[in-house]
Amino acid sequence: MISRWLRNRFVWVAVILLATTAGAAAAVNAAGTEIEPADLQTQIVNQMRTTLEQSKPEEHKHAGAAETQEHAAVICGVRVYGYEPAQPTALAEVRKVYGFHLCGVAEQNRPWDVAVKLAGPLIMDMSTQPPGIQVVEATGEVKYVDRLNEMFPEKYAQQAQTEALSDAEMTDLRRRYDSAAGL
Fold first, then answer.
1. 3-state class percentages of the chain: helix first, strand second, coil last, to nearest 5
2. Torsions phi, psi of 112, nearest 5?
3. pLDDT tens digits, 27-77
4. Domain range list for the chain
5. Beta carbons of 73 and 96 less than 8 angstroms apart
6. Cβ neighbours of 174 (radius 10 Å)
């Protein structure tokens, strides 16, 4: 009976179809597990955050950045105001990103309220590897708002004077900071 079943061509057709379908489903699922964000804006935000978090506090180019524990994690929240060119189709085409960052240096058992923080508008140069970070800072001769207007295109400078992190981004930043600080 089993030998007759194994010789039946309809059984083999069904086995082949089942195997082909299973293989195709596995290929689709494997391709779908890539961790690449669906939209360009999310990719830019992720690249900006990752760049800032992988750099040391002094690489953020803030004047007078306080000394911190050597192995303390830098945890950042970001907001993108815009980028150049204005209509890229892929992350690789983005040359400059204008935005805001708020980073906390997550030293063990140090609460957010007393953590070293790095914050403010910044320009990220995506044409270099690693991306360059330029923050807006006042000097003895130039006021902060004047420096902001020198560095940022007008439409982004206006945003930078009024917009920081969204509530959702701030909540995520605090959650990730507390986790990294062991709180």
1. 45, 20, 35
2. -50, -45
3. 444 444 344 456 889 999 999 999 999 987 655 544 444 455 566 899 999
4. 2-32, 40-180
5. no
6. 15
